[in-house]
């Protein structure tokens, strides 16, 4: 080859090598850029994963709280349900009582009339302790029963109160003033009753004494041997002397 040909070949070879170096550098840069993008994408993906994990943990905690709250609400709801059921039973009971009020009134009014009649008959057969007061009490009961402004409950209360008062006569020791008939004459006396065991009368001049005989429904005059004891009994009932043993004419039980 001539020198000119050799020089041309060298120039062409150098140009070829230069172009190859330029191509390799561009590819390397592209690879580096792609790698950077991959790293960046991986970092972003990891960040998303971390965020999703944190969210999942928060959701898990919230879920557990919801479960706990649900259990608590269930227990509380069961408690309220029992209360409501108990209140409903009370309401049902009250309603039944309300429904039966009219029937109760219909039954209790005849009962009260029977009680008053029985009380009046008992007073007539009983020893005449405070007989005027007791007879007047029965009449007041009848007046109450015919008074439309008095409720059924109040009427029943008054009737029971009268029975309670009658019951107390059986345990009272008391004295009070009054009159009895003796030989066709009215005599002023001080009555003394030892419950329903004995009813005695002492004249105001303390010279005569009588005892009630329930069989004959009359006062029987006592002998002088009882006079001092009856005077003492009246004084004891009046609170003038202390209570003590006394001799009284008491009819023995048969």
Automatic annotation (TrEMBL):
<protein>
    <recommendedName>
        <fullName>TonB system biopolymer transport component</fullName>
    </recommendedName>
</protein>
<dbReference type="Pfam" id="PF11932">
    <property type="entry name" value="DUF3450"/>
</dbReference>
<feature type="signal peptide">
    <location>
        <begin position="1"/>
        <end position="25"/>
    </location>
</feature>
<keyword id="KW-0175">Coiled coil</keyword>
<dbReference type="InterPro" id="IPR016866">
    <property type="entry name" value="UCP028069"/>
</dbReference>
<feature type="coiled-coil region">
    <location>
        <begin position="28"/>
        <end position="104"/>
    </location>
</feature>
<keyword id="KW-0732">Signal</keyword>
